[in-house]
């Protein structure tokens, strides 16, 4: 099982933290309400992960600069040829 094989539930995040040597810090599970995130002014963001044929991460980031299609000014994700 790789780190990309788990979801974002609390149980899955515990697996991710256990499997990852790079997570050596505490993290907060904010539950369904995301009360702490809202108090810090954090907003949900769509993030894309592009993996190559060997399942290695090639891109991590936004798809574009706005969730409303009519307001998109830049397409951030790499375009496929």
Topology summary:
Elements: H1 10-19, H2 35-39, E1 48-51, E2 57-61
Antiparallel strand pairs: 1-2
Q: Which structural class fits the helix and strand makeup?
A: alpha+beta
Taking the alpha carbons of the first and last residues, their distance comes to 30 Å
Number of domains: 2
Largest sheet: 2 strands, antiparallel
Number of helices: 2
Low-confidence sequence ranges:
none
Order of helices and strands: HHEE
**Mean pLDDT over all positions:** 77
Rg for CA atoms: 16 Å
Strand percent estimate: 5-15%
Give me the side-by-side strand order of the main sheet.
1-2
Shape: flat
Q: Please provide the count of β strands.
A: 2
Oligomer: single chain
Helix content: 10-25%
Notes on the protein architecture:
- The protein is an alpha+beta fold.
- The chain has 2 domains: 1-41, no CATH class; 45-81, no CATH class.
- It contains 2 helices and 2 strands; from the N terminus they run H-H-E-E.
- The chain has helices spanning 10-19, 35-39, and strands at 48-51, 57-61.
- Strands 1-2 form a two-stranded antiparallel sheet.
- A hairpin with a 5-residue loop joins strand 1 and strand 2 (57-61).
- The protein is flat, with a radius of gyration of 16 Å.
- The mean pLDDT is 77.
Summarize the structure.
By secondary structure, this protein is of the alpha+beta class. It has helices spanning 10-19, 35-39, and strands at 48-51, 57-61.
């Amino acid at each position: 099982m790789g780190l990309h094989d788990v979801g974002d539930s609390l149980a899955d995040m515990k697996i991710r933290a256990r499997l990852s040597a790079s997570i050596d810090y505490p993290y907060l599970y904010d539950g369904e309400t995301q009360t702490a995130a809202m108090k810090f002014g954090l907003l949900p963001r769509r993030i894309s992960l592009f993996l190559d044929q060997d399942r290695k991460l090639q891109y991590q980031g936004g798809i574009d600069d706005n969730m409303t299609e009519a307001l998109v000014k830049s397409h951030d994700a790499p375009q496929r040829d």
